[in-house]
């Protein structure tokens, strides 16, 4: 049996990232779709809204074209540390064939979308040149 190394880790505090759990502002999930999967993404979006109504989760509109580092259409879900396990496990179960990027909000966009990221489903190639590092 082969085991895979998890792609998620909470980073250690270093002088480079200045990361600490206390400073963590929460998490984003980006659910990616293309024309052929837009209906599935919209259905997941509506299901997410219903599932997390009144809780520490915000669900945003579908964005049908690439924006910033995101290479295809997507919608965003914002959630708190307290909701992390619940939201991530729910998304893994409900996402179907959609790719989802989950990342920390540490204040360093580049770090957040690379080292501070977890992929559910196939990984997308992000346009990293759009992301600012903390020192920039």
From TrEMBL:
Gene3D superfamilies: DOPA-like domains
UniProt cross-references to InterPro entries, sorted A to Z: DOPA-like_sf, DOPA_dioxygen
PANTHER family given in the database record: AFR070WP
Protein known as: DOPA 4,5-dioxygenase
Domain of life where this protein originates: Eukaryota
Phylogenetic classification of the source organism: Eukaryota, Metazoa, Ecdysozoa, Tardigrada, Eutardigrada
